Request: fold
Amino acid sequence: MLIIFPIGKAEAYLGDRTIKYGMQGYDVQQLQKNLNYLGYQAGNADGIYGWRTLSAIKQFQGKNGLKVDGIVGKATANLLISQVSGNNSSRPKTTDAPAAIATTSRGSLPLSRADLYDLARVVHGEARGESFEGQVAVAAVVLNRVLSGQFGRTIQEVIFQPWAFTAVNDGQFYLQPNASAMRAVEEAIKGWDPSRGALYYWNPKTATSKWIWSRPISLKIGNHVFAS
Reply:
């Protein structure tokens, strides 16, 4: 389920600001989740930059040839995000891997393998209980957001927008996507958009944001409604 809240200045995401020991926020939580995903023990993803997070980031910096100071600036943040997006240790092996760059037929949007994999992780985390059409629709919404330029100009900027996707917030984004999610992404980048150009979707039974209901609903697929 996708949840939209008005974004406040304090809700920066990883890379927006320099993070130091003692700081708190959404970006710190994202930092902790990414470190844990890569095998660096940052402890609970509570959004508080404590000693365990400090130790983990220093290990990451040391292993990757960065200045070991525990300060998460642009260089550390970008490398961390890059490794999370590109980490293929648990990805299914295939002999016919996709090309390094794909282009969606709904625009000249270059997508790397890391982009496709991250998009599949969103689909798996958000819609693995939905029909295949519903999974394609979720992938299409992410692509629609990138193409609109209103939510970020890259897959990662859209995905990691604060509080945009439940799967990112609760950690399901970091699960290994299944074959259905990967196929759904393939269909979406080929041009299939069951959402009919939607920029939002949510589960009306569980949505708690009052703001999201201000969007005009255009259709329903499975447990999700879609809106522009």
